[in-house]
Amino acid sequence: MTSVPILQLKSISKSYSHGIKALHNVSFSVSEQEFVYIMGRSGAGKTTLFRIITKQEEPDEGEVWIENERISSIPQKKKHLVRRKIGVVFQDFNLIDYKTVFANVAFALELRGLSKKYIQKQVEMALEIVGLSQRTQNYPQMLSGGEQQRVAIARAIVTKPKILLADEPTGNLDYKTSESIMGLFSKINQMGTSIVMATHDLDIVSGTGRRIIILDHGEKMGENCG
């Protein structure tokens, strides 16, 4: 029996008031434990797509499904329930400067009112996965760019999301550091998390054998393998 995709986008379209179509009739699905790249130049619609998946924005047309739930029908006041299924990693890290590494990673769990004991355990596990167990009391400004991105990844996976979205996660990193970060994403994927990564960097996707969805001016132009 064919399993239900963990993520489905059905005929997603989005326009803005100035008349530019950010997305037009975009459809694709992602299977459990799949690692998919979304490729396109700046302005192709990658970030808008992620904002719709995470309910930061609503599509003008189309549906988004996560597992068996149509999240595009969930009201905005309950969007936090959707975000519990999704981890997000950004290009510019988005860490809180005045919080330690531990506190940055713990923040999402604290918002849910979970016990200190549970938070301690989950944060320690997440930081061990990304290789920063010895950096818990450091602040972001004390870390290299690669280390800051590892903290951001730990923060994204500490809630044990079904899906991890990564928006140009190596865009601010040098080649060697980017390779290390991509190895970490592969490790997380092998642990069972589906990953959808937006990138315009051919070096990242070449030779991976993973599925690539190509966007151009808001339209899906096709798919191929890296």
What descriptors fit this protein?
10 strands, 7 helices, Rossmann fold, alpha/beta, 226 residues
Describe the model.
By secondary structure, the protein is α/β, with parallel strands linked by helices. It has a single domain (33-58, 83-225), classed as P-loop containing nucleotide triphosphate hydrolases (Rossmann fold). Helices cover 31% and strands 27% of the residues. The chain has helices at 46-53, 79-83, 101-111, 116-129, 145-157, 175-190, 202-205, and strands spanning 7-15, 21-30, 35-39, 61-66, 69-70, 86-89, 163-167, 194-199, 211-216, 219-225. It has a six-stranded mixed beta sheet, with helices on both faces. Strand 4 and strand 5 form a beta hairpin. The longest helix has 16 residues, at 175-190. The protein is globular, with a radius of gyration of 17 Å. 37% of the residues are buried.
